[in-house]
Amino acid sequence: MRNAKIARKTKETDIRMELDLDGKGSAEINTGIGFFDHMLNSFARHGSFDLKIDATGDLIVDEHHLIEDTAIVLGQAIAQAVGDKNGIARFGEARIPMDEALADVVLDLGGRSYLVMNTEFESPRVGEMNTQLVKHFFESLTENAKMNLHATVTGYNDHHKIEALFKAFAYALRRAVKIEGEGIKSTKGVL
Q1: How far apart are CA 117 and CA 125, in angstroms?
Q2: Is residue 48 part of a domain?
Q3: What is the pLDDT of residue 152?
Q4: What is the enclosing helix (H) or strand (E) of 157?
């Protein structure tokens, strides 16, 4: 079973999450941030992951803590669900368009955290989500998933750019977690 169930409670947020890497793409997402919920639903659907998130936080301050902590928990859930990484493809990539926007994502579940993201946003917000938090979401996620992630997004509509990015991430991750046989894909023998 390649799944994870994680809870994280701080003075700022309370997050409960379930992730099944071998799901069918069903999602039950409730963060209180509409656009963020939409992105997480897209991630689950296009990755064919089953994902449940119930997250509350100090939205009266702003959405930063809730988005950051959701990323932390999702990263931990990915790491837990892949376990010892025996048999996984390890690497994944995807190139996804959405109208004028184009997202390229390449990732490695090799155990080292690193994010390279090349994108700029035209607007400070999409819905209730600060566009600065898109990069911060992926920084927190990659650190906790122990994942190397390179992402480039072009276009002019920020909704399209962010959605293409989340979909490309989903497809790349689905390819990276695919079971391809036995053993660890590393000359070291461990990841």
Answers
A1: 18
A2: yes
A3: 98
A4: none
Give the residues of the chain that fall short of pLDDT 70.
Answer: none
φ, ψ at 63 (rounded to 5°): -90, 0
pLDDT at 190 (0 to 100): 79
CATH assignment at residue 137: 3.30.230.40
- What does the pLDDT read at residue 88? 97
Sequence-ordered alpha helix ranges (H) in 48-157: 64-82, 132-145
Q: Look at the chain and report how many structural domains it folds into.
A: 1
- Overall size of the chain counted in residues: 191
Partners of 72 in the beta sheet?
Answer: none
Asked whether residue 188 is domain-assigned, the answer is no
Angle between helices 64-82 and 132-145 (to 10 degrees): 30
pTM (two decimals): 0.97
Count Cβ atoms below 10 Å from residue 72 Cβ, excluding itself: 21
Q: Is residue 60 a part of any domain in this protein?
A: yes
